[in-house]
């Protein structure tokens, strides 16, 4: 065992002890207000920085999923028996249960997900922001009165689905956990959430801390395990009334199909191949800085990563040269180091996928102008999934790397001639999650943004995001929205209520009341 790996194991053990998750079984599920060991096959967690095993835990399995669903069903009924204002107060109190644990949560995320500690600290703050925002909506989900052309009073109210099944990914487990939990419970639902089997810790910890802060026991259950076993049991459970999935288009199709077989709706937040469009009149200093943040933050493991840089031809050489110099200076290092700006990819499978796509692109005629291999300067023991920030040019639109999601720190740069050409290239994809336009011409900025088939578009910026604004995509990027008021509405159904106000009941279908 090398020095770095031993340090990671010791760090992880200390963190788990602090959260009460270390025992005979190092990781448990969280069901009905208590830890619950898995019952299935053994899963081994790998340290992304060293490529060595951190610990083993057991897959939850179908029986535990059903226990979690039953627990959430009971808790949801009690939750809805409270007033809306009381639910809001309890949500605000619950998130205060995280106070004093922020640094430990960030450290836990960093060691398992392989994310720079500075990024993880920011995401802890986002957890609080999400719960505070949706807590404020609890008593503001107003219905409406419809002026129907009869003697009836007709009003519409928004009612919860009941128990929602949620599946979150490995690239941002803590962020996506809170991103999904907060609107679901604000709308009155119970939740059973399955994190990625690669990053299970922070979701269990958040659920436990929220209950300690005031959420009802069992309202949120966490089941940890594999997709074909625990995930399939969750999507197939008769007690689940809606499915929410964040992940790849391939898995998203399976989730949607599983729900469709039971006529259960779903929200899918899937991949992206976002176009970052730079016109020659843009502030190139800002555009180059923005392009780095768009693709190299989180090692490119972001659904909104600006993985296609489209630059007007007269500025193409300058922008790509400057970007290559800047990329070469990004500090790639160990996740726990304060100086690290970019850590490793999270797992071996993703690393193999990314490096294979680079190799295939080069074989097809693309040229790597920076990166493309393991970065220099890493400790010898850091034999994990590190890849230097990479930029490719001489890429053509039909190449796989220009069409498919890479989900790594790999940017393809392509020139365009005019607005029409930029829009055509940007929309030449099945994905439609995000995009950006850089120009100092306000009319052009809005004109181009309005033509992009993307759920989020930035002008002279990239990756600004808020829980207050709707987020989601078109096409292979999924459907439904997962934040803002639109995200809250995904978790309720409109119920139409008709009240007869006439002194005598109206006659329906020609039949009287039967009273002689």
Automatic annotation (TrEMBL):
<dbReference type="InterPro" id="IPR016160">
    <property type="entry name" value="Ald_DH_CS_CYS"/>
</dbReference>
<keyword id="KW-0560">Oxidoreductase</keyword>
<dbReference type="InterPro" id="IPR016163">
    <property type="entry name" value="Ald_DH_C"/>
</dbReference>
<dbReference type="InterPro" id="IPR015590">
    <property type="entry name" value="Aldehyde_DH_dom"/>
</dbReference>
<dbReference type="InterPro" id="IPR016161">
    <property type="entry name" value="Ald_DH/histidinol_DH"/>
</dbReference>
<dbReference type="InterPro" id="IPR016162">
    <property type="entry name" value="Ald_DH_N"/>
</dbReference>
<protein>
    <submittedName>
        <fullName>Aldehyde dehydrogenase family protein</fullName>
    </submittedName>
</protein>
<dbReference type="InterPro" id="IPR029510">
    <property type="entry name" value="Ald_DH_CS_GLU"/>
</dbReference>
<feature type="domain" description="Aldehyde dehydrogenase">
    <location>
        <begin position="39"/>
        <end position="497"/>
    </location>
</feature>
<feature type="active site">
    <location>
        <position position="269"/>
    </location>
</feature>
<comment type="similarity">
    <text>Belongs to the aldehyde dehydrogenase family.</text>
</comment>
<dbReference type="Pfam" id="PF00171">
    <property type="entry name" value="Aldedh"/>
</dbReference>
């Amino acid at each position: 065992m090398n020095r770095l790996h031993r340090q990671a194991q010791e760090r992880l053990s200390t963190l788990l002890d602090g959260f009460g998750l270390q025992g005979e079984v190092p990781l448990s599920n969280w069901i009905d207000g208590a830890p619950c060991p898995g019952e299935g096959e053994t899963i081994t967690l790998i340290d992304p920085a060293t490529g060595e095993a951190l610990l083993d835990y057991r897959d939850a399995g179908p029986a535990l999923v059903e226990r979690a669903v039953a627990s959430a069903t009971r808790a949801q009924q009690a939750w809805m028996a409270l007033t809306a204002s009381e639910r809001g107060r309890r949500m605000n109190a619950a998130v205060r249960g995280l106070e004093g644990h922020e640094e430990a949560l960030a450290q836990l995320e960093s060691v398992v997900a392989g994310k720079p500690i500075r990024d993880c600290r920011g995401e802890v703050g986002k957890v609080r922001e999400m719960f505070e925002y949706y807590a404020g909506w609890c008593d503001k989900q107003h219905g409406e009165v419809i002026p129907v052309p009869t003697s009836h009073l007709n009003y519409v109210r928004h009612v919860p689905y009941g128990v929602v099944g949620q599946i979150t990914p490995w690239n941002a487990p803590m962020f996506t956990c809170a991103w999904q939990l907060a609107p679901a419970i604000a709308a009155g639902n119970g939740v059973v959430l399955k994190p990625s089997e690669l990053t299970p810790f922070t979701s269990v910890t958040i659920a436990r801390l929220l209950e300690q802060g005031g959420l009802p026991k069992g309202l949120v259950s966490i089941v940890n395990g594999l997709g074909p076993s625990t995930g399939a049991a969750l999507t197939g459970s008769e007690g689940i009334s809606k499915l929410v999935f964040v992940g790849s288009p391939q898995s998203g199709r399976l989730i949607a199909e599983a729900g469709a077989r039971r006529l259960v709706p779903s929200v899918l937040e899937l991949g992206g191949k976002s176009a970052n469009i730079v016109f020659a009149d843009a502030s190139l200093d800002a555009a180059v800085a923005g392009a780095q943040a768009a693709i190299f933050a989180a090692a490119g493991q972001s659904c909104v990563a600006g993985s296609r840089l489209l630059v007007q031809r007269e500025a193409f050489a300058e922008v790509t040269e400057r970007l290559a110099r800047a990329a070469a200076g990004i500090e790639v290092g160990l996740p726990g180091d304060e100086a690290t700006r970019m850590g490793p990819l999270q797992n071996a499978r993703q690393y193999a996928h990314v490096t294979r796509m680079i190799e295939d692109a080069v074989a097809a005629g693309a040229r790597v102008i920076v990166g493309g291999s393991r970065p220099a300067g890493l400790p010898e023991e850091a034999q994990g999934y590190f890849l230097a920030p990479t930029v490719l040019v001489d890429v053509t639109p039909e190449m796989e790397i220009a069409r498919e999601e890479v989900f790594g720190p790999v940017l393809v740069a392509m020139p365009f001639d005019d607005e029409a050409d930029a829009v055509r290239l940007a929309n030449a994809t099945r994905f439609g999650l995000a995009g950006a336009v850089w120009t100092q011409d306000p009319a052009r900025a809005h004109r181009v943004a309005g033509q992009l088939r993307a759920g989020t578009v930035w002008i002279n910026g990239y990756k600004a995001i808020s829980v207050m604004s709707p987020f989601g995509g078109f096409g292979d990027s999924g459907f439904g929205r997962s934040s803002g008021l639109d995200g809250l509405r995904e978790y309720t159904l409109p119920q139409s209520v008709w009240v007869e106000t006439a002194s005598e009941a109206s006659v329906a279908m020609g039949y009287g009341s039967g009273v002689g």
